[in-house]
Write a structure and sequence with these properties.
With 211 residues, the protein is an alpha+beta fold. It has helices at 51-72, 86-90, 101-113, 134-147, 157-162, 176-188, and strands spanning 26-27, 34-35, 76-78, 91-92, 97-98, 117-119, 126-129, 154-156, 192-195, 207-210. The protein starts with 25 loop residues before the first strand and ends with a strand.
Length: 211
């Protein structure tokens, strides 16, 4: 039998009714993220065979993944293993359901296709989640550099991501692979030039000049 997924705004709330099962939004005690009511719908954790239904299901899941990652400042999620608090994302203990790794991979593949994520490496075992896209990080970084009077000066990756001046910024502790994607955007715009650091300095010792 085909399963129909209600949108988060139209999902039945409160007492059960003939229109469908009781679905309640819930706040995770682990991360304090507010999950939509659809996250309490058992069939939501099983990939539906109907292509149209799966497309809607995946769209809802992608919204949850992006929202959860933004809320928890999670930049990468895994397909098989659950890193950190990811168990909170992929499952609902109250109803005893969890999204299978194979379905996670299908979902992440669609998110990559839609520009919402990018595989970390060719093995496709984990993906970077673009709750902010590289172009958005690029704008934030360049605006901060300009506002702090650091144009035409060289900053190391470490200074950008972990330095005292940047500790209140949204890009503080941004993973270096995502920083590189943002810098690629600025380089194409002619606003940045990367400088190779010494081998002893490691990735954080690489530099960038903003112009």
């Amino acid at each position: 039998m085909a399963v129909s997924f209600p949108s988060p705004s139209s999902a039945p709330q409160g007492p059960s009714s003939p229109a469908g099962p009781t679905l309640r939004a819930h706040v995770s005690p682990k991360t304090n993220f507010s999950f939509p009511a659809i996250h309490a719908f058992p069939p939501f954790f099983t990939q539906q065979p109907n292509a149209t239904t799966w497309a809607h299901q995946a769209q809802l899941w992608a919204g949850i993944v992006l929202g959860w990652c933004r809320h928890t400042r999670t930049f990468r999620v895994a397909v098989e293993r659950e890193e950190g608090e990811e168990e909170d994302l992929w499952g609902n203990k109250e109803i005893g359901r969890k999204l299978k790794p194979a379905t996670r991979k299908e979902l992440l593949s669609l998110m990559v296709k839609n520009g919402q994520a990018d595989w970390q490496d060719p093995t496709r075992t984990s993906a970077w989640i673009y709750w902010r896209k590289p172009a958005d990080w690029a704008d934030l970084i360049y605006s901060w550099v300009s506002d702090t009077g650091q144009l035409n000066s060289v900053l190391t990756f470490w200074e950008l991501l972990e330095g005292d001046l940047s500790h209140t910024t949204e890009f503080h502790n941004l993973p270096i692979p995502l920083l590189r994607r943002a810098l690629d955007v600025l380089m194409k715009q002619g606003k940045a030039q990367t400088l190779r650091g010494t081998e002893d300095a490691g990735p954080g010792g690489e530099g960038v000049k903003f112009v």
